[in-house]
């Protein structure tokens, strides 16, 4: 059994050397007849490999995303209720007053009241400012 494995290994090495030799001869033919194109391809492959290597080196140690924990103290100190917090999260998700009203099963006027209360508590005048302020305080992710 051992001699059979050795024989197969020897034939494999001989066939691999023959294939390598034939590929080398074909490469020599290719270089002689298409020298410019061959060198352009080799340089392009080299730059591609360099780009992949640099990309992997630069971006392999990206910081892992950490779990968000809301700042409940800021929420409590501002007097933001759970319902207002829910409205604030939906505002941050980009939903309109009507969409928020449908989602929470309340009237659009109730949503407007919650939004105006949030504006007063966060001391802002616009939705984007309210979302930004809430993120600064750690109320939203």
What can you see in these coordinates?
There is one protein chain. This protein is mostly helical and about 140 residues long. It folds into two domains: about 1-60; about 70-135, Arc Repressor Mutant, subunit A, CATH 1.10.10.10. The protein contains seven helices and no strands. The protein has helices at about 1-35, 35-60, 70-80, 80-90, 95-105, 110-120, 125-135. The radius of gyration is 33 Å and the shape is elongated.
Number of strands: 0
Class inferred from helices and paired strands: mainly alpha
Q: How many H/I helices? A: 7
**Main beta sheet:** none
Topology as a string of helices (H) and strands (E): HHHHHHH
Average predicted confidence as pLDDT? 87
CATH fold title of the largest domain: Arc Repressor Mutant, subunit A
Topology:
Blueprint: H1 2-33, H2 35-59, H3 72-78, H4 82-92, H5 97-104, H6 108-122, H7 127-137
Give keywords:
141 residues, mainly alpha, Arc Repressor Mutant, subunit A, 2 domains, 77% helix
